[in-house]
Amino acid sequence: MIYVLASAICSVLVSVLLKLARRFGLDIGQMVAWNYAAAVALTALLLQPSPAPLRQAGGPWFPLFGLGVLLPTIFLALGASVRHAGIVRSDAAQRLSLLLSLLAAFLLFGEKLDATKALGCALGLLALLGMVWRSGQRRDEGGAASWLWPLLVFVGFGMIDVLFKRVAAAGVPLGTSLVAMFALALPVAFALAAWRAARGGARFSPRNALGGLLLGLCNFGNILFYLRAHRALPQHPALVFASMNLGVVVLGALAGVLLFRERLSRTNLAGLLLALLAIALLAWA
Predict the structure, then answer these.
(1) How many domains in the chain?
(2) Which band of pLDDT confidence, cut at 50, 70 and 90, is reported for residue 142?
(3) What percent of the chain has pLDDT over 70?
(4) For residue 59, what are the domain limits?
């Protein structure tokens, strides 16, 4: 389980780095772009994927191109969500996006809906509502951005998971699909960063590159340790899945509350607990 813990820590570190970016004068758009440069290099070096599956006729290029566009844009949305809504709610929204991929499994991939999954989905939706809810006296504190960005993270990561399942269903190995989607996301991310710089945003600088490479290291570490966890426990995929998602929500909550003094209402706390219960039910269903 050490790999699961390491993967969860790397995932939360991504949110922590996004939270600290403005404090250190770093541009998140450029960090996201350099993150994909690191991700491509590390995936090619450590996973050593073969490009042969992508050369075959009928390759899943449509979902891969979709991932190439969605990955950097939703990464920027995650950065905005962490800034406006905090680490606790952003990480919970990201993990609850499995509800959308589960819905797609029922509608697109022929998976059957049983009582446990239905209960998990219902609790997950209630959890999402509780996590984005703002009480009356705090509703103006972060404005609409405090709940719109987490919702966009929820929808965006759900779409990413659905597209990733499409790629996997085409028989493309994980390493090959990762390096392909990261390589496709790289020019999109740099184009977005250049567009922001041209409109008066931060100029490209070594500081932003260094921050982005560190972000990419944590992002790739999340993936690498998650894969190793599945290899170490091949007979228990649900345990790995549940432990990873629950670990991210719990560690994200601890980081947000203890390190950044994020304040949660009773409704937000109830949503957090419901999120943990929903993830556990869906994992073991």
Answers:
(1) 1
(2) low
(3) 96
(4) 2-284
